[in-house]
Amino acid sequence: MSTINYSKWDHIEVSDDEDDTHPNIDTPSLFRWRHQARVERMEEAKKEKEQFKSEYDSHQQKLQEIKRKVKEYEKSEEKNIADLEKLKISLTEMENQEKEWKKKEEELKKKERLTPWNVDTLCKEGKSKTIINKPKKRVELTEEEKGERQVEFVKKYKDKCKKFGMFQKYEDSQSFLLENPELVCEETANYLVVWCIDLEMEEKHDLMHHVAHQTIVMQFILELSKQLDLDPRGCVGPFFSRIKVGEKQYMDAFNDELESFKGRIRARAKEKIEEAMKEYEEEERQKRLGPGGLDPVEVFESLPPVLQECFEKKDIPMLQKAIMELSREDAEYHLKRCIDSGLWVPDAKKDSDNQQEEEEVYDTPSEPTSEPVKEGQKSSSIEDVD
């Protein structure tokens, strides 16, 4: 086996090399002066090294720049021989200087290598690591990641979540969660909340109240885990132990949260019903839109009363007379809106013949609809009035 070389430990410079000092010399001060002198030498060596590096880097940049110019001149079609020769001379000088810089670099490395070690350079901290035992932090997910996680959870555990939502006794709920610890999570609470909203929208109020109770049970377990900074699965037992005792203050807080939750469910269900009605009304409105994209109901309600009466009575002469009595500008405005909404169809007779529809048509403009246009009902059309 090769022996270990301990020669690098032969020369170590420390402030208290001499244990025996003259009685008249203040030993602590002597050691302090020696240390200060050594630190100053180290600073000077450091500055010398930094200065060398800065100057050498500058030299390298100049050398690369001259090489680049020489290549450009050599590739250029219009060469200036004199300038090219000057650049080549400069390049030769810089390359010679490069050798001097390399030599100086080796000298600095040798000087650094021969410098005695001391208490400041003898040991260096490779890396430092402080470990403090703390509970594992919850990983924060983005909204998109939470949504994907919820979808996957529901696909996998939907039946179990519903089963938990139907339990009535605390003992049954506790046993079920201990047997299925994967359900003790935010995803279960989220699913139960959505189920409560759906039940309220379906007017299954009694079942909603029951599932709401189980939702608050799950939320209290999750809240307890946050307070204790523990895994929710470890809080199932403590929660049910406390809820079974029936402490008045704790039960009051539980029941208050339950009633508040049911109120929020009712409000949200009402909002969703209103949103669904608005969507349905908008769909019906889109179905009613005429060729110009206008709603016949809205157009009819915006017509002057005399024109509304003409449409209601299906009175063609009366309609022609009312149009003639309007200013040209107003008449054109209302006629265009009637056409765009489908209340008025120009050439209705021609279109009817082409489509071979079984309805009565007249040589005169077709008569208005037999009844006023109602919301949700697409109006019959009349022909254009000359």
UniProtKB/TrEMBL annotation:
Localization in the cell: Cytoplasm
Top-rank taxon, per record: Eukaryota
Coiled coil: 35-114
Domain Cdc37 Hsp90 binding, first and last residues per copy: 128-284
Cdc37 C-terminal domain span: 288-384
SUPFAM superfamilies: Hsp90 co-chaperone CDC37
Residue ranges constituting the Cdc37 N-terminal domain according to the UniProt record: 3-130
UniProt entry keywords in alphabetical sequence: Chaperone, Coiled coil, Cytoplasm
InterPro entries the record matches: Cdc37 (IPR004918), Cdc37_C (IPR013873), Cdc37_Hsp90-bd (IPR013874), Cdc37_Hsp90-bd_sf (IPR038189), Cdc37_N_dom (IPR013855)
Disordered: annotated segments: 345-386
Family: Belongs to the CDC37 family.
Listed name of the protein: Hsp90 chaperone protein kinase-targeting subunit
